[in-house]
Amino acid sequence: LLAKLTILDNLKETGKIGLEELSLKTGLLREQIMQTIQGLSKTYLINIDGDIVKWLPADNPSTIRPWGWNINHVVSIGSTQIAIRGMGLWSILVAEHQYSGRGRHGKGWISDLGGLWISYRLPVKPWVANVIPIALSIILIKIFEQIFGLKAGIKWPNDIVVNDKKIAGMIIEGEYVSDTMIVNIGVGINVNNEPPIPGTTSLKKIVGKLVPRNPILASLTGWISRLDKILIDREQLESMYRDHLVTLNRRVYVETLTEVFEAKAVDIDESGDLIVEKNGIKKKLNPLTTLRIRHLD
Amino acid sequence: LLAKLTILDNLKETGKIGLEELSLKTGLLREQIMQTIQGLSKTYLINIDGDIVKWLPADNPSTIRPWGWNINHVVSIGSTQIAIRGMGLWSILVAEHQYSGRGRHGKGWISDLGGLWISYRLPVKPWVANVIPIALSIILIKIFEQIFGLKAGIKWPNDIVVNDKKIAGMIIEGEYVSDTMIVNIGVGINVNNEPPIPGTTSLKKIVGKLVPRNPILASLTGWISRLDKILIDREQLESMYRDHLVTLNRRVYVETLTEVFEAKAVDIDESGDLIVEKNGIKKKLNPLTTLRIRHLD
Question: Would A93 disulfide with which of A80, A123, A215, A266, CB 3.0-4.6 Å?
Answer without folding.
Answer: A80
